[in-house]
Structure prediction request, 465 residues.
Amino acid sequence: MISIQIPQTYENERRYIITVLLCEFLGLDIDIQVSSRENVSIAYEDRELLIADGLFRTPLANWLQPDSLPQQPLQVWNIAKTKLSATTVNPEIPVIYGDRPDDPQFFNFSSDRIYLGLDIFGSAFFMLTRYEEIVKLDRDAHYDWFLGTSSLAHLAGFLDRPIINEYLEILWACLQTLHPRLERQHRNFQIYVSHDVDEPFRYALSGFARLLRRCGGDLVNRHSPAAVVQSISQWIQVKTGNISADPCNTFDRLMDISERHHLKSAFYFITDHTGGAIDGNYRIDSPLIRDLLRKIHHRGHEIGLHPSYHTYKDAAQTKKEFEILKKVCAQAGIEQDSWGGRQHYLRWENPTTFQNWEDAGLDYDSTLAFSDLVGFRCGICYEFPVYNLKTRQVLKLRERPLIVMECTVIEKMFMNLGLGESAMQVMAQSKQRCQLFQGNWTLLWHNNRSIDRHEVAVYEQLISC
Prediction:
């Protein structure tokens, strides 16, 4: 067993992040003890790794305050100048918390002892708990988003890197240098595809007014008389009983693609409408949606929750919407071992939304990506247990970080890359970096973005390459 000694401050926080990194991610057997010291000691078979302390040296009065945030610009440590053999995206490692890397003692090792000036545990805690999103008050005025452009990861230039995976590999490289026979938990690269069901059908659940608005958009916005003809044709077919003609009814197509690539799709459904029209125009208990739920379940795919627009701050409403989903599924004969989902519009408040999901009884969340920029919001491509920064408790809820939402890449209001080569490069690079660490690449592709043949081809190319 590996013996860990930690300083006396922030014991709950230290135990959480050390357990996540060493037990959850590396699969090591550890024992944690509190002692009077100024750094973290990891001892095994008479050899010791010392890790610098940074974040957890913060005075209590400054905890969750601006003075506790990393000092910018961040210092950079070049790991290539050491003898460590660690898997990283780049040998230039941003130091979120820790000593100054220009100090000769930043990395110091002998045959039985290593000192590392990189505060791996404090930095990982900062990223996984989204610490800065409580401290910084920056929010988008319309959607109340904490934007990627406000994040330390973007400002310091590492949003496109799973930086905590890199820190973890540095930690492992240090442990292996001291203990060559030490073994870690094996991991396999995993793709998770999910589909937020904002608009299951364009015409099946709406009237003639919806067709008129669509035709107006075809003419005024898309300048396409041919699209008007197509919209009218689709509307007539749907209203005369051919539900497969509804352009948003792409569920079979998405499940076919997943099955070809040995994947399971997760479809997250809205069950109530706290935001009005922004929450879609369907009822989860309508016969058409019930049939769709049965089909998804029968084919072996997953059903989950897409809590409505105003739920991210409302625990009672979140629970209510999950209960609605479970009731409808039970009536349809649908049982699942695990229930998860994602907040509508990625609206999220730290730690309120996490606690809402915990209290509702959900098993996992997959909300945490930035709406405006692709990247690693939590700095990690592994699923992990959630920590409530205000109650200082580990939750049962698990976070499955979202890495790519297609709208972020495609839409003009975000990265505005369309579906060209630049868009493919951004999305494929994120996947490659998850593969580098045998992590999870989590992709959100809406069912109503699976209509155009080119978009479908891009989606399938992404999950297959």
In short: The chain has 14 helices and 17 strands. Residues 453 and 464 are 16 Å apart (CA to CA). The mean pLDDT is 95. The first strand starts at residue 2 and ends at 6.
